[in-house]
Amino acid sequence: MTAAGRQRRETVRMQAAGLFEQKIKPSEMARRLRVSLKSAYQWHKLWRDGGREALACRGPGWSRCRLSPRCLEKLVEGYLEQGAAHGWVEDQVWTAARVATLVGGKFHVSYSVSGATRLMHRLAFSPQVPARRVAERDEQAVTAWKEATWAEAKEPGRPAEATSASRTKPGSPAGRPEDAPGAGAAAPRS
Asked: Which regions are flagged for Low complexity bias (predicted)?
């Protein structure tokens, strides 16, 4: 959340504190300020236990980054390099695990895979997922199998006749055999 967003929320909480000081109940405060009842009762408890100061903003909700701004800058520059420069020749994508390894090797700071994912999002990157392919994969053989074997093995789809998803309103009787039940249902009534 941005600093402006935190400031707006703190303003609402301070308005709530003012209403609590006027002996307004949390449910009425929630209605007036258009906040949830849960928030109203949580704020009331905080206000009762610690006053206005307890409702003050405590800063951003996320944890502080363990890398300095200079290290973050170097890391972003590292993103611009090819993955092969860091030893990943086979697919050269930046996965969260690779970023964690890179950060550990370059900056001597340990990150878990999920922590590296959050770090990447903080830097406006998203982790990439490598395509898992067998090294010995023969694309021509796969294509030939799809065209020949798979076409025979897969089940045919629904018939192209008139159907309906409704049990009470069946499909058009035009596609029904003459002796089928309801075959004359399309005839106009007199």
From this structure: 180-190
pTM of the model: 0.41
SS (H, E, C) the chain: CCHHHHHHHHHHHHHHHHHHHCCCCHHHHHHHHCCCHHHHHHHHHHHHHHCHHHHCCCCCCCCCCCCCHHHHHHHHHHHHCCHHHHCCCCCCCCCHHHHHHHHHHHHCCCCCHHHHHHHHHHCCCCCCCCCCCCCCCCHHHHHHHHHHHHHHHCCCCCCCCCCCCCCCCCCCHHHCCCCCCCCCCCCCCC
Distance CA 54, CA 44 (A): 10
Distance CA 34, CA 15 (A): 12
